[in-house]
Amino acid sequence: MLSLNARLGPPELKTSYFAFTTLAAQLAFFVGPVVGLSIYQYQTALLFYVLIGCALLYGLCAIKSQTESTRL
Fold it and tell me: Contacts from 24-29 at CB under 8 Å and sequence distance 24+?
C-alpha cells in the first residue's frame, strides 16, 4: 500500500498520504478486535455467514480471474 502511495501521490502530498494510510491501518488494528469480539459474542451466526460469504465471493472472483487469464 505504501508503494502505491509513493507512485500515485503528488510529491508535495506524499507525507500526508503516508500518514493517512498508517493512521487507517493502526485504527483498523485497534478497532478490529473489539468489533470482531462483540460480533462473536452477540451474533455468532452472523459472523459465520459473513465469513462464508466472503470465502464464496473470493472463490468466485478467483475463478473469474482464472478464466479471463486463460482467454488471453
Answer: 25/1
